[in-house]
Design goal:
This protein is α/β, with parallel strands linked by helices. It is built from five helices and five strands. It has helices spanning 20-28, 45-51, 79-85, 97-106, 132-153; strands at residues 5-10, 37-41, 57-64, 74-78, 113-120. Helix 1 (20-28) links the parallel strand 1 (5-10) and strand 2 (37-41).
């Protein structure tokens, strides 16, 4: 085990609420240990697999489209839950997150622990800025992701997870 923790904010800030993942990653700068990898991804499976290579814990932050929709609702899923919950779901990415996780498992590249934090979105049309509903959910989403990083660091030596 490397103890490596990776947070990936998936999304496109030029598509409204789909920019929530990158917004969370930006908000985490200076709030998590220096050795935490903070990355923004577009959801392309090859890049996702490379970002989490050799990681023990991966935290993915993603915009979700759920039916019936409850914009602003937060969800926390394991890799299994994300794979099951996104099966057949619409995605703005080449493959859904569930398909990407299944591919990682088949290639034996799935990290030991995967946590997915998502927020149900209202708008993903072209344009910058989050909707009011998603912006209101952002502080709680940021805290949930930071808590996942803290939890991942609990088993690491104190110097490896020194909080700023």
């Amino acid at each position: 085990m490397t103890g490596r923790v990776v947070v990936i904010g998936v999304g496109n800030p030029l598509r409204g609420d789909d920019g929530v993942g990158p917004a969370v990653v930006e908000a985490l700068r200076g709030r998590v240990p220096d050795d935490t990898v903070l990355a923004v991804g577009d959801g392309e499976p090859g890049r996702m697999l490379e970002l989490w290579r050799d990681a023990d814990t991966v935290v993915v932050v993603e915009a979700l489209r759920v039916c019936p929709a409850r914009p602003g609702a937060l969800h926390t899923l394991t890799a299994t839950g994300a794979a099951r919950g996104t099966r057949g779901a619409a995605s703005t990415h080449a493959m859904s997150l569930g398909e990407c996780l299944a591919l990682a498992e088949a290639l034996d590249l799935l990290p030991r622990r995967v946590v997915v934090h998502g927020v149900e979105v209202a708008e993903i049309e072209l344009g910058t800025g989050l909707s009011e509903t998603v912006r209101a959910a952002l502080p709680e989403l940021i805290e949930r992701v930071a808590a996942s990083v803290r939890h991942a660091c609990e088993g690491k030596p104190p110097t490896a997870c020194a909080w700023l």
